[in-house]
Amino acid sequence: MNTNRIKSIDIFRGITIFTMIFVNDVAGVSDTPWWMKHFPAEGSGMTFVDVVFPAFLFIVGTSIPFAIVSRVAKGESSRKIWMHIVIRSIGLMILGLYFVNLETFNLQATGMSSRVWLFLFMIAILLVWNTYKSTRARLRNVIVILRILGIALLGYLAYIYRSNYNGEIAWMHTSYWGILGLIGWAYLGSSLVYMLFGKKPVLIGLCIALFILLYPLDKLGLFNHLSTRNFLWIGGHFGAHAAITTTGMLVGILISNKTLLKTLKTRLYTLLSLGMILAVLGLLTIPPYGINKNLATPAWVLLSSSICVLIFTFLYWLIDVHNNEGWFLFLRPAATNPLLAYLLPVYVSLFFYFSGITFYRQLGYGITGIIRSLIFSFVLLGITHAAGKIKLRLHL
What we know:
Layout: H1 7-26, H2 52-73, H3 78-101, H4 107-110, H5 114-129, H6 137-160, E1 163-165, E2 168-170, H7 178-197, H8 201-219, H9 236-256, H10 264-284, H11 286-289, H12 298-321, H13 332-336, H14 338-355, H15 359-362, H16 366-389
Antiparallel strand pairs: 1-2
């Protein structure tokens, strides 16, 4: 496999994070066009907003072959690679678990406001997952202490946390795993597929089909016995998200393994064919369950995957083939520091809350709100760039 960096992967990631910041912010703007919001949960259909999360899953998968091959090239053992995969997955699940539990936060039972709890949680994230870089022994000891403090803070926040869950005071739970947690599960599933079948694209394609098949099996009640065990999560949603991530992984293999597709023309035609096949399959699977992001139906999975494959193919042709990376340099901060860029809106909202700034919410209407959200997204790119300059970079 060719381990040279594929620039379009970074650009796709940057576009996805930028769009994610924008759509999350514009969701709080009233009187916006229907196509700038998620399609109604009770309906069958999708807007571009419903493809943003799949795009992130897709690019996570596309990066897997390159990341693992790079680790192998450095001499890492399979055991160490597996350890990295598991630790990274658990890290994402922990972040998702904490965030999702904010939705049912009980102030009186916890003993502090949800804003203070969230503020301490965001501090813990910085302490634990910042990429400290130092060769000096004394500073390395400080880094270990900072990480231990962060882990201790996470433990304390979990210890005091209480929620309103099903009408009762309860501890942390998983009604679902949150965006980051869902990514963690999908990453774990796709990494498992790669470690088993990384050099066999046909078997990877079969795994994608099996992941999608989990949805109708879930509908038939095959996983009902797991629904009462809050910390076990499997079934249709896991299969849907893992299918999208594994599709991205398959694309990463196809563009990097030159022994599979020897010429550029063959790679491009193969990717275009894959995108069109997924689109046709997506259209054919609409009747049973419809297109629904919340339910993660097969049609949504296949159509979203098709869109991601086709967009990525265009970016690959534009950037890696014709060397037009300069058009997208403004996205580099989000591409290279995606977790921080994704979490920055939370830090900014906490700053607004504790400082008493209210003008931002007052701009949340119609075209004014849309422009506000667009400017906000660009500003966060700038903040992410500045954070990188001072070596603030979050990495799982």
